[in-house]
């Protein structure tokens, strides 16, 4: 029995050994030689920035044979920095990794064989070209300005001059971006820009509600690919909020006090352990802003402009706006396994502010001896709650670069706006007194589902595809009452009240293919997005209903050539859209201000633009240059149309222009003058030509902007930053305001504006604490001035607020562990990049 058992055991072991041998040599014919006719080996890895540990997209990968240095194949990395090259025969190889702005790296002695057909060289750290390798710090700071294939990244943590401010202050220092005194944002001279927060539309009423301390970086994408929504003719500005994932727990607390009743604070916390990463953030901001405006208008009632038919209107407004904003943001990331992650984020924004403003109006005409003096006192309160929730799933695979994501978003914004208005007037010396009040109850819901899939295809190629659905609904109920002095009651005014509802559904799908050729020196990306928009606007007060259904295609293309590590050339193309806001579509005639009526246009068509961009990049250890030439051709461009109704009243509405064109040049330079002095300079020039219903003299214009930022480092503990901004006179090609004090459209020009900010930062408490001092608009020059005209009127306006302020703040890092230096030996180890 024992002998039989022993024989069976030996036979089983022998069979198992033969099976394993057959599995290892199934391609071997008789004689023990390998059959390589169907062999396909591969080399894969992931390229990461040595400081940020983030994937470097579009890094060039080239594979050479070790024995003769002949090029075998090449590719570029995906958005996570991953790459994989297939169809390799057995042999010894070396790999070159290159990307503009980083030091090149080479890995030798990589063996591909039948025993090891798939070689993964792990995580490859590449170092920014201006750094000294021996001083690389894994948890070090990012440089302020970085360039990727399709975007510029501005790291706000390095921007001292915006600390204590808001997102508006941050954007004022971003190349290509301009912000006026009213907070209107433009990119390359166009206000048709899509502003996102963490890649999604924001439920904030104003970026003034978002403190600068919450922002990690700003991404400027002038020619987005098909993976992005096509909204925003001039491109996308994406504001990325802070969310750390360092091991253990860490956080930061900060407080900032400013002159004129300004103060804000933030508290961030993050805990990362095992499968969980939990984060929370709370911030508050209290503001006290004074604002002033001056407006003058002269109307010609006869076409000959005779002096006996002139009408004059002058308005002076002064006021104050006191507000408090609170934001609570939190969530978690949970690892479902080595390849899958589930994330949840929730955000609550609470806003409450009061406003008081007094407008003094003086109007007269020369043909009927009419005169009016009026004081209009408006006391208002506005408050609301914004909510946003997101559920995100991400799965990666063994094949580098293969990824699937699914995202569900819901947001709701509610607002209650009240105003009490008293008028005291003298009409031809006869006194008139009246009281009015208004209440606007509005809300907006948005539900979005999106799923994306990315995988390597062919030889070094990559395919991306995704679908997205967005469902929106907004409701705005505007009630207006007039006080009846005889009956001592408030009477509903149906002529100045309205109820507007807007529904919209957008269904989209996209596909993108990318690859490289020419030893990895050329990389390209081709994509197309298709969208079906179904919309309905319903003005319930007047019974006006407008239905639209539009199917549109949005192609995009990028190609990049890097002849060496110091030079890069790129051409990009995209088609984009700008859809009108709901308040622009509301057809109700608003006569609340008897001098300045306004009315929307429910039949306003979306704007479509074709954009072409040529870019050159130069990279040296102490000098970085980016230069661009761009062209935009826009159909159905929006324009505000201002026209006289009578001698003292104008009506503002919106129309589609037939066409407009713009082109320009842009340059950004980063220069390290010394070890302690660095400069960032940007310049942009653009020209715009309008076609359609345009007033003579306002159909063509040129403008330029310039920004200069100087950084000084003193004894490694003190940083000083000086920002200078200048914007030349500019054609108001796309006004989006309403009312007399927002002159624009194809009927005017805005005059030059300039200002200087100053900031200083001091590290204390062993670098755990930071003291920040910031002075904004130190010469008090930030004032907006504009002219507007038509065949029968001319006007001029000025707007300014208390922009000259001083801030002092303190921040403290919680659990600020020391950074670990990486030496040359560690960076040179080919096979030790797996973390």
Gist?
By secondary structure, the chain is mainly beta. The chain is about 5% helix and about 60% strand.
The oligomeric state of the chains shown is: single chain
The number of distinct β-strands equals 46
Structural class, judged by helices and strands?
A: mainly beta
Q: CATH superfamily membership of the largest domain, which one?
A: TonB-dependent receptor, beta-barrel domain
Strand-residue proportion: over 45%
Rg from Cα = 31 Å
Distance between the termini: 53 Å
Task: Give me the CATH architecture of the largest domain, please.
Answer: Beta Barrel
Helical coverage, percent range:
under 10%
Number of helices: 4
Most strands sheet: 22 strands, antiparallel, barrel
Domains (count): 2
Kindly report the CATH topology of the largest domain.
Maltoporin, Chain A
The general outline is: globular
CATH class of the largest domain: Mainly Beta
How confident is the prediction overall: mean pLDDT? 80
Ranges where pLDDT stays below 50 over 5 or more residues in a row are: 1-32, 130-141, 733-746, 817-835
